[in-house]
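Residues determine shape. We examine one folded chain.
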Amino acid sequence: MLTGTQADRLRRLRLSDMAQAWTHLSPEVAAPGEATLHVLLEAQEQGRQGRRLARACLRARLPQAACLEETGTGGGLSPTVLDGWKSGTWLTQGHHMLFTGPVRTGKTWLLCALGNQALRAGRRVRYATLRGLVEERQAARDRKAEPAFWKEWTRQDVLIVDDFALTPLDAEALNLMLAVLTQRPKKARAQSLLVASPLPVPEWYERCADAVLLEHLADRLVARSQRLELSGVRSPRS
């Protein structure tokens, strides 16, 4: 009999009264319904998991429905690196990543593929372009809701910032990126930051308003990240 197991599943679904009633059934009464209950619980668990994932995907705001399984190698992405990502080690160990390369070389696709992998693993994920992040904070200021902005961004397990240095890096953008990096609270599980830029790191300095501030940010971001220079990753949209 699996009455204990089924009762535990009922409790996890917050059906405590049903769980209590199930444990009090005699074996003769419970046995014929064991298989049926298993099927019903399986459907309920899968349904809740699917709805939870759908809500998480909406909150993440990923612009592409990308996945690592549909990602090809080449263009700066080796089979070894791709297989390593598929193992999920980057997520459990909190690796940071920095992708650089011209437009349409697969940077956003990779960001979204990794973000979707994290979502399927039950992690909190949030995507924005750097300019979008700045605008989101300004909108929160205008609504006098800046604490909610910081709560949203600092609680994520995986932060994704796209189009870094696509436009000139003013002091506001640099300070915001530094704050996002430094204000994230320590959590029991690892946290990751994924960043993509159309420019190589040395060219960032040509577009910034404060070289000292950028150096401080680069020291935290670049030195601690897995870096890939991309020239054209193959994907279904390539």
